[in-house]
From TrEMBL, chain A:
Residues 17-264 form the ABC transporter domain. Belongs to the ABC transporter superfamily. It is found in: Cell inner membrane. Signal peptide: none annotated. GO terms for molecular function: ATP binding; ATP hydrolysis activity. This is Peptide/nickel transport system ATP-binding protein. It comes from Paracoccus chinensis. It is a peripheral membrane protein. One of its GO terms (cellular component) is plasma membrane. Keywords: ATP-binding, Cell membrane, Membrane, Nucleotide-binding, Transport. InterPro entries: AAA+_ATPase, ABC_Ni/Peptide_Import, ABC_transporter-like_ATP-bd, ABC_transporter-like_CS, Oligopep_ABC_C, P-loop_NTPase. The lineage of its organism: Bacteria, Pseudomonadati, Pseudomonadota, Alphaproteobacteria, Rhodobacterales. The keyword Nucleotide-binding applies. Its main location: membrane. PANTHER family: DIPEPTIDE TRANSPORT ATP-BINDING PROTEIN DPPD (PTHR43297:SF2), OLIGOPEPTIDE TRANSPORT ATP-BINDING PROTEIN APPD (PTHR43297).
TrEMBL record, chain B:
Pfam families: ABC_tran (PF00005), oligo_HPY (PF08352). The lineage of its organism: Bacteria, Pseudomonadati, Pseudomonadota, Alphaproteobacteria, Rhodobacterales. One of its GO terms (molecular function) is ATP binding. CDD domains: ABC_NikE_OppD_transporters (cd03257). This is Peptide/nickel transport system ATP-binding protein. Belongs to the ABC transporter superfamily. GO terms for biological process: peptide transport; transmembrane transport. Residues 7-257 form the ABC transporter domain. Keywords: ATP-binding, Nucleotide-binding, Transport. It comes from Paracoccus chinensis.
Length: 337, 367
């Protein structure tokens, strides 16, 4: 493996969560995550964006200590609020999870227990971490349900998950995650299963709650439109590595990695001329057939022999890094076309 | 109906009877409730709406994969409801369907050659085995796969490639009308672009008429000539794609367009956000079905059902009593353009050229 730069993205001094050189292996396969650095500060939203198989969800599960199955090897250093996290031993994170750091998932129906009433499930999250009476726990549950915009919360508390719509269930998930006022919220594709009008409501809700509470948010999504709307900083992941990272303006207005450029070109626009979409040919290689060097090289239209060497995540502007030997591309390919 | 019309629906309605509590008959779910439309030969017609709008049911009614409760569908001027025997088989040959989920719509135990050969056996029984092989190879090439893929099984392919197999299967019978129910929504964005481009190429090359059902308005804008917007089983607006996106008339269309997050940082979303969720199609609201969520609703909307009327006479009908007043008082502000001159646009252009160059010497396949 190539040596990895020791610097961390963002502003390490104030970072609430810092992850350095995260590496994850399943069984005997190649590394699924290879040297990922992340940092997020209070009040900031970091978006991790990538397609299926990019490793964005695995990364977040490892940080939450939810990747504890046999045969999974997790390496890397992590710090949360000045405290070292032992990612290799997920059990050590149990006390933090649901308390100082919380997570919401794509499919609320599979994350809620179908056999328990909504109110009981939220109150249980309180009593797991706080030494309060049942009545106090229920009062907090009611309060948070109101804050996330659940109508008639007293009635909803007595309902079961199947009685709610998808958007309402996602609000319940958010209420449950936020009831203990976490400092960090990890949201894994929280709006992907929702209709676009409901998605707009949930995105507004998450942004508003974040502003009110000064929470740090890690937002995992495949949708660049959602990223542009919610994130301050972005990490574009491809096949278990960070391809590019920077502020949302840097990455969208001055994209450097060919993968980022291809992704941006493949989104159909709502305005302007209807040109043929750019495509990223092929699909993400499986861990077994991962190319040596730059992992995007098998799909990259600019690939050169040098790409058999793993490119470093190079700084191109303050806080803007890309893992491409040839960034900015126009220097090498500008006139050739 | 003119010669230009390939498919025509009148008052199309489909109710589903839910299994209710004992001794009590639940109200029917009115999935599609009185839809009329004409599909023009050679166009790509898009039907858009959220979950529960009835768009998938409508697509299945148009292909006669479902029988309507009321109303009629005519394909090439012929009523399809009563068709049986040879006439039905001809309809099945001429009208084909592409399903959303390329993982569950292909038999995992059949090889790609079998999957694509099957419709050939059904519709062209006179074909010899060798001819069939050649035709399967041709179809695979047409959708950007390789003839060698014939002996492989669905699990060996990625999602985008499986959707290509589904498309090859649909094209095998040489249909004139292809209906796609969310054909790209299960795919990653970069792969989605490949399939969108493929469908556009095939329509051009084969002179197909396409009906595309989707919830993603940006994809629809990219693919279609005309758009119909559905809400709770009825059409609320219909028109040319450019018209609908530039000057949407129905408050629901405006809200849908405003809710889409554009990949442009720092954009203020237009203030069209609607609250609430789509009501149950078992108990649609009286009057205008959208009035419970409409920011412009007035008293009349609670009582009077608005009809889909082309009262401007410009081929852009809308089912709203007050669309003129709404447009006059609150003109729709389309989302900001993407920056066309910045480094992002320049690099995307550079990238496009590089992909075109890489693809030109040998036609690439999906892999």
């Amino acid at each position: 493996m190539t040596p990895h730069p020791t610097n961390v993205t963002g502003t390490p001094a104030e970072a609430l969560l810092k992850v350095r050189d995260l590496r994850i292996t399943f069984g005997n396969s190649a590394e699924v995550i290879s040297g990922v650095d992340l940092a997020v500060t209070p009040g900031e939203t970091l978006a991790i964006v990538g397609e299926s198989g990019s490793g964005k969800s695995v990364t977040s599960l490892a940080v939450m200590g939810l990747l504890g199955a046999k045969g999974v090897r997790i390496e890397g250093a992590a710090e949360f609020d000045g405290q070292r996290l032992n990612l290799a031993h997920p059990d050590s994170l149990t006390g933090l999870r649901g308390d100082r750091m919380a997570m919401i998932f794509q499919e609320p129906m599979t994350s809620l227990n179908p056999a328990f009433r909504i109110g009981d499930q939220i109150a249980e999250a309180v009593r797991c971490h706080r030494d309060v009476t049942e009545a106090e726990a229920r009062a907090r549950a009611l309060d948070i349900m109101r804050k996330v915009g659940i109508s008639a919360p007293e009635r909803r508390m007595r309902q079961y998950p199947h009685e709610l719509s998808g958007g309402m269930r996602q609000r319940v998930m958010i209420a449950m995650a936020l009831v203990n006022e976490p400092a960090l919220l990890i949201a894994d594709e929280p709006t992907t299963a929702l209709d676009v009008t409901i998605q707009a409501q949930i995105l507004d809700l998450i942004s508003q709650l974040q502003r009110d509470r000064g929470m740090a948010v890690v937002f995992i999504t495949h949708d660049l439109g959602v990223v542009a709307q919610v994130a301050h900083r972005v990490a574009v992941m491809y096949a278990g590595r960070i391809a590019e990272t920077g502020t949302v303006e840097q990455v969208f207005n001055d994209p450097q990695h060919p993968y980022t450029i291809g992704l941006l070109g493949s989104i159909p626009s709502l305005t302007g001329p209807r040109t043929r979409l750019a495509t990223v040919p092929g699909s993400v290689p499986s861990p077994a057939e991962m190319p040596k060097g730059c992992r995007f090289s098998t799909r990259c239209p600019f690939a050169q022999p040098k790409c058999a060497e793993q490119p470093r995540l190079r700084e191109l502007a303050a806080g803007h890094r890309a893992a491409c030997h040839y960034a900015p591309l126009e220097l090498s390919f500008g006139t050739a076309a | 109906m003119s010669d230009d019309t390939i498919l025509s629906a009148r008052g199309l309605t489909r109710h589903f009877q839910g299994a209710g509590a004992p001794f009590r008959k639940p109200p029917p779910v009115r999935a599609v409730d009185g839809v009329s439309l004409d599909i023009r030969r050679g166009e790509t017609f898009a039907i858009v709406g959220e979950s529960g709008s009835g768009k998938s049911t409508l697509a299945r009614l148009l292909a006669r994969l479902l029988e309507p409760t009321a109303g009629s569908v005519a394909f090439e001027g012929r009523e399809i409801a009563g068709l049986s025997g040879k006439a039905l088989k001809e309809l099945r040959r001429d009208v084909q369907f592409i399903f959303q989920d390329p993982f569950s719509s292909l038999n995992p135990r059949a090889s790609v050659g079998t999957l694509i050969g099957e419709p050939l056996e059904t519709h062209f029984p006179q074909m010899s085995a060798a001819e069939r092989r050649d035709r399967v190879a041709e179809l695979l090439t047409q959708v950007g796969l390789r003839p060698e893929h014939m002996g492989r099984y669905p699990h060996e392919f990625s999602g985008g490639q499986r959707q290509r197999i589904g498309i090859a299967r649909a094209l095998a019978s040489r249909p004139t009308l292809v209906i796609g129910d969310e054909p790209v929504s299960a795919l990653d964005v970069s792969v989605q672009a490949q399939v969108v481009n493929l469908l556009a190429d095939l329509r051009e090359a084969l002179g197909l008429t396409l009906i595309v059902i989707a919830h993603d308005l940006a994809v629809i804008r990219h693919m279609s000539n005309r758009v119909a917007v559905m809400y709770l089983g009825t059409l609320v607006e219909l028109g040319d794609t450019d018209e609908i996106f530039a000057t949407p008339r129905h408050p629901y269309t405006r809200a849908l367009l405003a809710a889409i997050p554009e990949p442009v940082p720092g954009l203020d979303r237009p203030a069209e956000a609607i609250g609430g969720e789509i009501p149950s199609p078992a108990a649609p609201p009286p009057g205008c079905r959208f009035h419970t969520r409409c920011p412009y609703a007035r008293e009349r909307c609670r009582i009077d059902v608005p009809e889909l009327l082309d009262d401007a006479g410009d081929g852009h009908p809308v089912a709203c009593h007050f669309w003129r007043e709404i447009a006059a008082e609150n003109p729709f502000a389309p989302p900001a353009h993407r920056d066309e001159d910045g480094p992002a646009a320049a690099r995307i252009a550079l990238y496009r050229r590089a992909v075109a160059q890489a693809e030109s010497p040998t036609p690439t396949t999906g892999k």
